[in-house]
């Protein structure tokens, strides 16, 4: 149990409606654990509640109910230690325009009570490629540089957990690659990484485990490997000449008789071929009048899991 980087139990957030707006239930009882040392992807469509969840972890948004444990520390009873365990790179660019990158890192380190001798602003500036701009005003930095500075700020207190909210949304390829290289390196050094993204390919490539949330609820939580396994799920729909009495059987084949008399055969393309499925159909003595296959791609499955219910 102490092996979890993050443990959320029954986490709820209701935003009070402003100016006559109805209140909004952004998180509806999230139960989620993130293992230490992992790269964990939090996926979901716009408005799913990803930033709300992350901002609660960061202490920027107050939860309505539930329990948040960060690196074994309860956020309510151990606020200081839980806060010290986590660094958050927010989605919004909220930099003070009057600070230089070095100044911003030093102020942030001060906020987290990092003693002067333990600060490593130079190392961080080098890592985020802002050594040349160390003394420039933040307002003179490009959007990409500001984003890198936000990453740097999240790291000043050597957190065990780094959380990144849409780190690569709207950034160019070069910056994206730089961010990913940094994130990989930090993870190799032992840091637990949690990130949100709506680039499915990115999540596929980077994350060990993925949770998809939709409308404030976790709809799926699995290893990326298993999730991709689900994604190669295929269904063959066989319309028989005569009513079916015996369902086809075979390893890796799940057969089901549909209300309209068709037989639906589910299988995984990485384990079972269409030919094996058809052979099973023939062995069951079924004469095929018509056959169709349905394949789910990543986008389909994501949409199926996150469509409004
Ligand atoms: P995501 O990051 O997944 O796009 P958010 O956590 O930003 O989702 O938002 C979840 C829901 O909560 C959305 O419907 C959003 O409009 C609403 N919401 C977010 N912040 C506030 C707020 N400060 N006040 C009221 N509603 C909010
Ligand atoms: Mg968001």
Question: What would you note in describing this structure?
Answer:
With 309 residues, the chain is an alpha/beta fold. The protein has 2 domains: 4-228, P-loop containing nucleotide triphosphate hydrolases (Rossmann fold); 231-297, Alpha-Beta Plaits. The chain has helices at 50-57, 79-84, 101-111, 121-127, 143-155, 173-188, 200-206, 224-231, 274-283, 298-306; strands at residues 4-15, 24-35, 39-43, 65-70, 73-74, 86-89, 161-165, 192-197, 209-214, 217-223, 233-240, 254-257, 263-268, 288-295. Strands 6-7-8-3-9-10 form a 6-stranded mixed beta sheet, sandwiched between helices. The chain has a 4-stranded antiparallel beta sheet with strand order 2-1-4-5. A 4-stranded antiparallel beta sheet has the order 12-13-11-14. It is elongated and about 80 Å long. The structure holds adenosine-5'-diphosphate and magnesium ion. Residues 50-51, 91, 165-166 line the site of magnesium ion. Magnesium ion is lined by residues 50-51, 91, 165-166.
**How does the overall form come out from the CA principal axes?**
elongated
Low-confidence spans: pLDDT under 50, at least 5 residues? none
Q: Classify the beta-strand content into a percent band.
A: 25-35%
Query: Could you state the order of secondary-structure elements as H and E?
Result: EEEHEEHEHHHEHEHEEHEEEHEH
Rounded mean pLDDT is 90
- Number of DSSP helices? 10
- Going by CATH, the homologous superfamily of the largest domain would be P-loop containing nucleotide triphosphate hydrolases
What is the makeup of the main sheet?
6 strands, mixed
Q: For the CA atoms, what is the radius of gyration?
A: 24 Å
Helical content stands at 25-40%
Distance between the termini: 33 Å
Which structural class is indicated by helix and strand composition? alpha/beta
CATH architecture of the largest domain: 3-Layer(aba) Sandwich
Which small-molecule species are bound to the chains here?
adenosine-5'-diphosphate, magnesium ion
Number of strands: 14
CATH C-level class of the largest domain: Alpha Beta
Count of structural domains? 2
Task: Describe the strand arrangement of the main beta sheet, using strand numbers.
Answer: 6-7-8-3-9-10
